[in-house]
Amino acid sequence: MVDKLTVPVVVDAPQHAGLSATLDYLSERALAPGTLVSVPLGRRQAAGIVWHERIGAGADASRLRPLAGVLDALPPLGHAWRQLVAFCAGYYQRSLGEVALAVLPPELRRLDDAQLARRLARLAASTPPPPPAADPPRPALTGEQAAVLRALADADASMPTLLQGVTGSGKTEVYLRCAEAALAQGRQVLVLVPEINLTPQLEARFAERFAGRRLVAMHSALTPAQRLRHWLLAHLGLADLVLGTRLAVFAPLPRLGLVVVDEEHDPSFKQQEGARYSARDLAVVRGRDARVPVLLGSATPSLESWTRAQQGRYRHLRLTERVGGGAWPAVRLFDLGTLPRAQPAPPLAPPLLAAIEQRIARGEQSLLLLNRRGYAPVLFCSACGWKSGCPHCSAWRVFHKADRTLRCHHCGFAERVPRACPECGNLDIDALGRGTEKLEEQLGALLPGARIARIDADSTRAKGALQAQLAAVHAGEVDVLVGTQMVAKGHDFRRITLVAAVNPDAALFAADFRAAERQFALLMQAAGRAGRDAAQAAASEMWVQTWHPQHPLYAALRAHDVDAFARSQLDERRAAGLPPFASLALLRAEARSADAAEAFLRAAADAAAARAAALGVRLYPPVPPPVARVAGMERLQLLAESASRAALQRLLAEWLPQLHALRAQHRGLRRWAVDVDPLAI
Ligand SMILES: [Zn+2]
Ligand SMILES: [Zn+2]
Q1: In the chain, which stretches have pLDDT less than 70?
Q2: Does residue 160 sit within a domain?
Q3: Strands of 330-335's sheet, edge to edge?
């Protein structure tokens, strides 16, 4: 009989989290770390990955079960990939196997070795795109772009670069030139973007520049078969460029030579369930470990990245001028306090309306930004005080006039709008406040004959709808575009000469400590939509309707001064002990009753209290998040804060096994999770 070897395997089994990183199985032969296998797990069969070198069969090898299968056809996942997964699991406090298997294409688990071998043979035989007949044209570099590229060329590859460039300053051309250099050295390039909606434009530019190279996309809108194909092309080293959303940070790339993170400040890079990782932060880790340059690009860098650049931990390069000399739009703060009191208040101040009318008369376009979709955020009965609350959440249901529904934006619960107040029968129910649907309707009345369009999550639900609507804007078939933050990002509108933020004040006083940072980024991005065409740039304007024209956020917007805004925000964060001056983690709990969730969190806090005090980690009492109840579940959270990231990490590593054990004693608890570096608290 052949001596069997013990192989350590990771599997996606959360119940093992915090207990043991790997499970041992018996194998007939040695298997390289990174080999995909299937193993018996309880009564089922599960996919797993061999994680370490084999270890000699121990004394209790007789109790181990043999592997169920080995996917030999797939080359093993490399050391760099396993290192990234291990970092992610450790830092974000998840099990190794959960992270490792969650980031693989699901199709991979369904194929047996023979099926996989056939797929791989087909891929290897498939011909790459033919080289282009002629070199694609490259625009001449601006002086600033050339200087940035020179600085990058003799850079120390282990230090990430923050490329802070105003909208329209040609950051993408810098990405393209860096990619060109990496490809010329036979390396692969990874480009991360925050949203799927932004991938087609960037993909088109990369495809045009790198005709003849194999470029693959990675995002959640791919079919399972496409996702597997693209992943395999990356893993086999057959794809030269991978362009994708946050999950793409885990693409196995054996020849990786450059990582680009576009719009690095965007909150979409943070995963909001499972392993709540930041793809931006993992990209930096991946680049550091692989000694590969990482380029973080943004017009409004995250305060974390900006601070690291100020501290000299990132190189800080800047593009301050728009390509082609386009001017920054003049920012006009309109003080709503100067309007005569009227009931109800008009959606647009008369001077703003007049400015839009002028644009229409000149054949130019205007963009109105209102970050609230639907018709009205709440319906209200003035006779009895009834409001359109959601029965399942502590939130109002939004009135959508187009399909006459009341819809909860938290749990999705929707009903027909009642004809009369459900409490008292009053027929006269009011719509309070204003969403994009209502603004669109009101503009129709204020600007008769104008062609008005709306782009938000509701208007773009159908496949292809967003592309069709954007095409209409580009073709000049729209005079006034109403939209949420969806329209502020990335789109290269050539005919827009006026951008207006209709109601941006709420973020100034929000409880969320990042609300002002996000709002500033959004307004700067929106402003960047105006005057993209240099010929019209001088006449372009951004209007802000506000009750607080003296607010420092608007002063920085008006001066177009990202650094001034960053400094003022960082002063507040320093005083309040918030990131980047402190590290945070949230322990979240969900249960049918708030008491059950709170009992778990209090027990968790008690279990950690002594260690937390010794390590200098502060544990706050459990509190409900801003929307406490969602879909019938009460949610509470406990904040852990420390000036030292390492101390917080140590506490979490010791705490997690205790939490897994505690969970068994709290039967009423539905779910719990740890969120390291949460976006909001
Ligand atoms: Zn009523
Ligand atoms: Zn709801």
Answers
A1: 1-3, 14-20, 54-60, 490, 532-537
A2: yes
A3: 330-335, 541-546, 496-501, 365-369, 480-483, 452-455
With a threshold of 0.70, does the pTM exceed it?
yes
- Phi then psi dihedrals of residue 498, to 5 deg: -140, 130
> Distance, CA 417 to ligand 1 centroid (Å)?
14
Burial class of residue 11, CB neighbours in 10 A (0-12, 13-18, 19+):
buried
Enter the tokens of residue 650.
């140590």
| Nearest ligand to the CA atom of 424 | 1
Domain harbouring 460, CATH code: 3.40.50.300
Examine the domain organization and report whether 511 and 526 are in the same domain.
yes
> How confident is the model over 147-179, as pLDDT tens digits?
999 999 877 777 999 999 998 899 999 999 999
pLDDT tens digits for range 284-323: 999 999 999 999 999 999 999 999 999 999 999 999 988 8
Which of 323, 358, 387 is the C-terminal boundary of a domain? 323
Ligand with minimal distance to 381 CA: 1
What distance in Å separates the CA atoms of residue 264 and residue 163, rounded to the nearest whole number? Answer: 10
Give me the domain span that covers residue 266.
Answer: 143-323
Nearest ligand, CA 397: 2
Q: Which of 334, 265, 279 is nearest to 566 (CA)?
A: 265
Rounded CA-CA distance 295/152 in Å is 9
Residue 51 is encoded by which pair of tokens? 């994680």
Number of compact structural domains in the chain:
5
